[in-house]
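PROTEIN DATA CARD
Card holder: SSS family solute:Na+ symporter
Chain length: 477
Origin: Paeniglutamicibacter psychrophenolicus
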Amino acid sequence: MIINYATIVLYFLVILGVGFLAMRRTRNTEDFAVAGRRLGPVLYSGTLAAVVLGGGATMGSARLGYEYGISGFWLVFMFGFGVLVLSLVFGRKLANLRVFTVSEMLANRYGVASRYISACIMIVYDLMIAVTATIGIGSVFDVVLGVPKFWGILIGGGIMVIYATVGGMWALTLTDILQFGVMIVGFLLVMLPLTLAKVDGVAGLVERLPASYFDPMAIGGGTIVTFLFIYFFGILIGQDVWQRAFTARSPRVTVWAGAAAGIICIVFGCAIALMGAAAKVILPNLTNTDNTLPALISEIMPVGLAGLAIAAILSALMSTASACILAVSTISTRDILSTRYGHTAKDGMAHGRLVTFVTGIVVIGLAVVVGDVLAALTIAYNLLVGGLFVPIVGAMLWKQATKWGALAGMVLGSLTVIAFMIRDGLLANEPIYYSLTVSVVVFVIVSLLTRNPDPTEVSESLSADSLGYRDEYAEKG
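Structure generated from the sequence above:
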């Protein structure tokens, strides 16, 4: 156990060191928020994959693999498929937007009011995703290291907040690359072979598990469709993913390196679901299936290698949590605070650091009191997709969309998803179906009944001065 503790301490020290090293690259708001838009294919694909393969994806897939078998891979498949489609279909458009947030894009298309509404929805979404990942950090400390969950959240979450605050997107990028390497080695090269060896390979699983565990549709067609609507659509419009897209140095990197990241995510999803199924054989009486992956590490990994596996799962969780914390900070500073209070480039970076730190503290506090990881994940994606999917896609694909149609779709879509989550339960399928239907109908009808905004009027409302930005990026236009 001492070796495992030493491995984790060393890992945290390296992560913190990389975070402070990244601070030297962070000279202005563009560096802090989008790494100066300078990432090449290796850095870009690695950081994007690390963000997607986080708390909900890793812990959730292991849980579903334990409960349903290989069909548990559908969760991460939808994440990876979303990244693949986003990169190949919308990647070039995203690279050419030259904005910092999804809400900025919506404001360019629909006007300032849409910016505030979408920013509030996106903040709730990213907060909940960060919370689920931080809960996972606490679970790893509790189950594998024997450290109470409360202290695990404080320790792991605190380190994550520190490096995100001091280095911004550059810190996240460099730590993500390191963390992604740890995930490759820890999960695919070490833990997967040891897990399969423990159950006598795939053949041993076939002998010991019900046939349904090897049916890719066992999780249910309705659940797969719900995953499509929630997680696939959610990836297409999430600020945490878009903000990574804004870091690429060229449209070509956004498209092809992003597509590679999507494929990597799908492969990981299959591996994690398979390990979850093996855990059903190794730990047949597991009471809290949210802890499937940490419990499996504790059961099968020898001393030394267990520390590497723990670092791998912590890497996955910290990548997603830190990305969402920075996303909340960027939205808060760019879309809410700075539209009311002007600042210089230096002030903007200082404000960004302050808001990042405060956001991290809020996330840690929520993680302490929130329990169910999949429920929190579902709430986040329901709100995101139900409220914003239709207006965002409409902004990019439908010229007749108007600001009134977008605002009506956002507000009524969000209210619908909240109402049906209250009525049918947080994990029900109906909220996302009804909210998307309402959002589409209202968006189309209201857009057809109202005139398109005057492009000159929108352009003037979004000038750099009116947004409160007087940094070098705004001066370049």
